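Hi, here's the filled form for the chain we discussed.

Project: internal
Contact: R.S.
Residues: 913
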Amino acid sequence: MSSARHDYQQFLAWLHTPDRGASENTRRLANLVDQHFDVVAASSRTQSRRSAVLSAFARESLLQTSSRPTAVAGTGTAGEWAWSSLDSLTVGPFRGFRVPETFHFPQRITMFYGPNGSGKTSLCEALELALLGSVDEASAKRIPPQRYFANLHENRYAPPALASRDAEGQVSAVQANSEAYRFCFVEKNRIDNFSRIAAKTAGEKKDLIASLFGMQQFHDFVGNFNESMDSQLGLVAVRQQELDTQRAALQRDHETINGEILAIQAIAQDEAAYAEAFTLGLSYQQLLALTGSDAAPGHLHQLNAQLDGQSPGLYGVSSNAFVEAYRSADLEQQRLEDVDRRLAAKTGETSFQSLYNAVLGLQALTPDNCPACGTPIDGEYRVTRDPYAQAREGLAQLQDLANLQTEKNNIRRTWEDASRGLETLLTHFAQRLGADISNPDERICYLAFPGVDHTVPWWRSSYVSLDGTPSMAQKIVNFADECERIDIQTNQALAARTQMAQERARLVQASQAVTGFQTRRAEVARQVAAARQTIANFEEANALLIEAVRQEAMQIVLGQSIKAAYDEFLRLLRQFRAELPGTLIAGLNTAALEIYNEFNRRDHEGDKLAALHLPTSEDDRIELAFCAAPETRVDALHVLSEGHVRCLGVAILLAKALHIQAPTIIFDDAINAIDTEHREGIREAIFQSDRFATTQIIVTCHSSEFIKDLQNHLAAGQWTAYYFMPHIGDHRPRVRGNEYTLNYLAQARAALDMGDWRNALGASRQALEMITEKIWKWLGKNELGQITVPLAGRGAEPGLRNLCEALKRRLEDARTFVHPDKPAVVQCLSAVIGVPAPSNVWMYLNKGVHEEADRDDYDPNLVRTIVENLEMMNQLQFRTMSRDLAAVAQAALAAAIVTEPALANQRNERPAP
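And the returned structure, exactly as it came back:
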């Protein structure tokens, strides 16, 4: 419960502020809860367990507990950071890491990617432990740190060593501080919980912000306090009431002694009445003889001995059923053999039937000619007899054969029913006997494995009789007959047991009544003896009670103090929890709205947010207004899809990180919590925008496509990538750092440096596709997105060269469009297009990677031209200019247009178009 412990310590700091007005005992109780936090947190409100635990601690040491503020970990204030970025992490043995592994964070962005189970979660938990001092997952599962963090194969763990860099580049160890660094983490589990909370009840939705910010454990901790602990404090003077009652009871003691004879007579009358009601004319002494005792067992003990034995079981089989099943199977077998004989007699007709069907099947192919000789069916030269008509007539004459085949199919089905019916009887018999193939009784062996095969008359093998002995089938029938007779005897025995059970039940009830009478007699004797003792020596008998009354009075005073302290403590604790959402998200509305809209930049303008109102208390809801209706506020969880709710959760967390100016943000698999259609917007908003340009980002992800997009859309030198692979038997994750890149231009440059022109072009094609798409989007943002591109056909993709030419032409034609990146884009596109179209270079770029034999070598200079110009274009930012900057550029363009003709006249030259 480390997360809840930290939040509770923030509550202590809040509680001890002078303007809170908490009483001294309330502050003592709060400090006492902190001292025994783990024990208190482990209890729940069920059956008042939390109150029982806390009241015990309070009675023992509340008055001895200090009321002064306890030492609470330092809090992080926005902008006050001891370091500017993380430098390195050494982890292992720890969770999935068996031996130490060191990871460096030299660039702004560090990517960790690999399949599930390769070690990414262990890495994030190492960062969490190093930064926060604890891991929420371990606390939530209540697993001791020594066991949770230990590597399974080393059976131990070493605390992760995390180093950071300050603004001057000095490297130092990071000191864990949960308050300062907790908002540096954006976790998948938090995003998932945030998205699922929309389906919860209204009462559960109050935990919305706490769930998002990882404070759910604290909310659960507060919710487990009971409404009151009065029942645990003993506020009623029970011992005093008891003493008063005892003093008043002396008169009653005399009455008890005097009424002893009458009480015994009343019991004796009840005993006699019960014996008479049990059996007419039976005395109570005779009833005692029937029920008996351990020293003198009676009829009840005899019945118990007879009935406590195991009841005999029933076989539940019938010999007649077996006879009928064998007879039915034989009958169906005879019918099947009879129809087979009749079908065998028509073997020749079967051949004709196949022939006729084959002839009719050819009629669709040669309807006007004989399928055998090709002679026309009609005309001057035609066949003597129409083969198709003859085939139809022949099939009509063979109708009996078809009927016979149908009859066989029907008989086959009834044959299978009879076969399976016999099998069912044998299986049931075997189950009742517990048949086993190793049993020495041949009948039971047969029942365990009768050799059922529903394609042949399998039961006939049991008809075989050797040396004049009965066949196995007859033995089974006889065996069933024996079991029937045994069942008759068993049923008779069970009927007798029923009568004995009824008699025993009556005697058991009588025995309980006898015990009751004996208890009453003993109670009368005890009361009389106690009364005599009480009267004889009241003060001596009540000395302990009198002392207990004195102690009770002191405890009641303490209990009342604890009650007052607890009531105020619970009220203030719940007040702190209610105010927590407002504290967490104060000032985040605007930033969260802007980030959310950046995530959803592809959405319709009307579907973007015009206003966002985050809750200021635990009972409030997240409300928003869309640009299509900016004055209408709606509940976000009611109108947003799950994907948009997840985006909103990420936006709030990032807004919080920006608000506290966190130098590092760690995405723990959070990207995979976002649906694919929003990942492009998240990539651009987080990794490519100016908003997070000075923030170090560490991201773990198992989506290689997302990592590929990151590496291709980020400038070189901004990122470092580690690839995790599962172990190969040594239980050590295989870690590769920057050994392989998914960046197309990096792959192209590596191939170019090796003289591998073909693979350089292959990667260049992918890079060119990405860059042209980026240029096209850039033009669209500047209202120049409409271009003319020839297509090979409907639905076809434009050729890369055609697309490059169209983009270049659109830039050249837009004379009023001025942008710092425009000249470089036009120049690079011109260089790329300048490579001759008929060359094998453009053939490769246009159609992609295809293996072909005996291909001509590529011109190295042309390949180098392609790669170098793509690298130049990839360095451009393609940003949309602000209105002020665009106005300045337009003014400069206008001045240039006015000045150029005058200069041209001075040089006797014509102005450029």
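Let me know if anything looks off before we file it.
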